Amino acid sequence: MKIIISLLFLILSTISFAQIGINTDEPQQLVHIDALHDTQVHPTPVNYYDDVVVTSSGKIGLGTLSPDARLQINTAGTPTTPVIGLRLQDGSEANGYGWTSDNDGYGQWKVISPEGSRKGIRQNGITLNLLSVKNKFINTNTYIDLPTGRWLLNLTILCPATVLPIGTTYKIQITVGDGVTSGGSNPTNTSDLEGNTTLTGVAWPATHAMIKNILIINNTTTATKRYYLLAGKTDSTLNINIQKFGGGWGEDVITAFQLQD
User: Going from the N-terminus, what domains does the chain have, and what CATH number goes with each?
Assistant: First the structure.
């Protein structure tokens, strides 16, 4: 019997010291520091905002007794009265900088900037028959690849001089289609466009004209997408060909600049 009692005492003693409490008689985790000595068995948040804990799984909590991540900080701040919970000074900090990391997870304070600009790839242009694309678009094969994010797409496309009947004009609409919408005999614009979805240009006999404007594209996927320049919907009854349209001229430009949300 004495042996059994001794073993029970040893087990209970081990259990009682399984958690370490500093400034608290009732530790809630493997290691529990209660700076203000005000955390009880059933504390409210106001009691443990000053506490630091280390769980048996190696998680560290500051201002919380049950951290959900390797390091969790709770400062009791609110949307209207936030309380700063982290200050990291390594010499790279500066006003407006954000914390960035490399591929190995090493971090540093740097300017967080958009991806910058992207340049489209011009092809040789297409022969655009005004009558055949009266009510539809066709793919010019000129394209631009855009990563994830919102982009300001700048389009400058030459409408070359051509022989037209006196007193007539022609119009051409342009837009962009993605890998899903740009194929087939009747391609359509991408659903990634925000606001205006097409741009329109008007040309006169024996005169060059330009289609120059912007579109906004929002690529919400996690992958870079290819957007093709589409042209057509001339609403024309003229059986006339427009040569090298959509990439075959030096004036043709397709560029994009990333927008910050």
Answer: 1-77 (no CATH), 118-258 (2.60.120.660)
